[in-house]
Amino acid sequence: MTQRFKAVMWMVGLLAFFAVVGCASRPVQVSSVNKILTSAESLKYGKKSPADNFKLQDEIVFYVYVKWEDPAQKYGSHPVVWNWYLDGKLVSRGSKDVNFDKTPKELWTHRSASALGVGHFRVETLVDGKEVGSTEFEITE
Fold first, then answer.
1. At the N or C end, where does the chain have fewer CB atoms within 10 A?
2. Other C-beta atoms lying within 10 Å of the C-beta of residue 19
3. Range of the domain at 116
């Protein structure tokens, strides 16, 4: 090989390296596409009918759909936390690691209304500690 060819190949390799490192080091931004608060009763009929008022016998289900810019890129595994608040006070928390393998990604959680009690509630979904969706609702007797 000629000296010039080696120099060109070295430069191409160096540029490829920086392109890969540059892309890998950019943080992926996850954003909310949609959210739905519904009941398990609605889901039994194949629907996700939005609701914000529940009775103590209901099962409450909260869906959040998130996306990231490059659909070809997998976001990997990240912690997801769901916080349930009664009048601003944390009353329930759930968490798990979720593999963000496709966009949009459906995240969901559920709670029995009887386990939460009566009152004004807020549920939020966090990915990597950042809120990606929340909603408020009421539970009555």
1. N
2. 10
3. 28-140
User: What is the pTM for the complete model shown?
Assistant: 0.78
Condensed to tens digits (0 to 9), the pLDDT of residues 2-22 reads: 777 666 666 666 555 544 444
The C-alpha angle with vertex 117 and arms to 106 and 80, in degrees rounded to 5, equals: 25
Instruction: Report whether 48 contacts 42 (CB < 8 A).
Output: yes
Q: Is the peptide bond before 79 cis (omega within 30 degrees of 0)?
A: no
CA–CA separation, 3 vs 23, rounded Å?
Answer: 31
pLDDT (tens digit per residue) in 80-101: 999 999 999 999 999 999 999 9
Indicate whether 20 belongs to any domain. no
Residue 46 lies in a domain: yes
Of the CA atoms within 13 Å of residue 32, those in its CB half-sphere come to 17
Contact between residue 81 and residue 10 where contact means Cβ atoms under 8 Å apart: no
Longest dimension (CA), the chain: 84
| C-alpha radius of gyration, the chain, whole number | 22
